[in-house]
Amino acid sequence: MTAVIGFMQGRLCDRVDGKIQAFPWADWEKEFPAAQALGIPAMEWTLDRDRLFENPLMTEVGRARIAELSRQHRVKVTSLTGDLFMQAPFWKAEGAARAKLLTELDQLIDACARAGIGFIVVPLVDAGGMADKAQEDLVVAELTARADMLRARGVKIVFECDYPPAQLAAFIARLPADVFGINYDIGNSASLGYDSAEEIAAYGDRILNVHIKDRVLGGTTVPLGTGNATLAETLGRIVRSGYRGIYILQTARAAENNHAEVLRKYRDMSAGWIAEAGG
């Protein structure tokens, strides 16, 4: 079976306010035909706290438009990356503020179910990183309490986490495997100096979504093949671990706004590495 390679929403249009990633309010509809023209069949939605309930995903009319564009251009929204969780992590809030954020989480799970989105990426990194055991316990408790809701709605939560391999394996083991897993981000692991062989040996069977990107050690996202990520080797290990899910290009932005050309290049590079590994 040929691997499915998708892209992170926003990579096929101009940046929003100079950010590497943000919901592209002006251009989100245009990315469906742009992806179709490239033969890219999958997209990962991005969701910010800014104007959260105006986002098309969070409205009935918006979801109908997403479904129409998806059918018309044969580009499925398979997953969602929840940048809103880094912008306002419920595990770092208290009292009424935490309750409000958890209500928003429930609304997001319902919206994803209605839109046919199977995976919600919760980033436990940067401003959303878990600072101590108490915050980890809170994440586990609140999300375990939602396991039945996730099952009923056909949605899974996958974590992008800055924990080292053994600690991340211990964390994900605390959560039911049928609705919780790992979003493996190749670039983030390279930036943190982690060994992909050790990571995949520790929790490869829990990887449900993969982000392809390159980063320098301790630094930012760079064009594929120019950073510290061992892309061919790591993708080979992922394939050999038995992974059969989708690969999402969360790659460096095009320097000259030649978005389609750059994304096509990255897609072809990644497809070559995956095919070499038998994926």
Describe what is shown at a glance.
42% of the residues lie in helices and 16% in strands.
Write the layout of secondary structure elements.
Elements: E1 5-8, H1 31-38, E2 42-46, H2 60-73, E3 76-81, H3 83-87, H4 95-115, E4 119-124, H5 133-144, H6 147-153, E5 156-161, H7 165-172, E6 180-185, H8 186-192, H9 196-203, E7 207-212, E8 214-215, E9 221-222, H10 231-240, E10 247-249, H11 259-276
Parallel strand pairs: 1-2, 1-10, 2-3, 3-4, 4-5, 5-6, 6-7, 7-10
Antiparallel strand pairs: 8-9
What do you see in this structure?
By secondary structure, the chain is α/β, with parallel strands linked by helices. Helices cover 42% and strands 16% of the residues. The protein has 11 helices and 10 strands. Strands 1-2-3-4-5-6-7-10 form an 8-stranded parallel barrel, surrounded by 5 helices. A two-stranded antiparallel ribbon has the order 8-9. α7 links the parallel β5 and β6. α7 runs parallel beside α9 and α10 packs across α11. The model has no long low-confidence stretch (mean pLDDT 96).
- Strand arrangement within the widest β-sheet reads 1-2-3-4-5-6-7-10
* N-C termini distance: 7 Å
Low-confidence stretches: none
- Give helix % range: 40-55%
Main beta-sheet annotation: 8 strands, parallel, barrel
**What letter string, H or E per element, gives the SSE order?**
EHEHEHHEHHEHEHHEEEHEH
Extended strand count: 10
Instruction: Write down the overall mean pLDDT.
Output: 96
User: From the alpha-carbon coordinates, what is the Rg to the nearest angstrom?
Assistant: 18 Å
Structural class of the secondary elements?
alpha/beta
Put simply, the count of helices is: 11
Tertiary shape: globular
Q: Which strand-content bin applies to the residues?
A: 15-25%
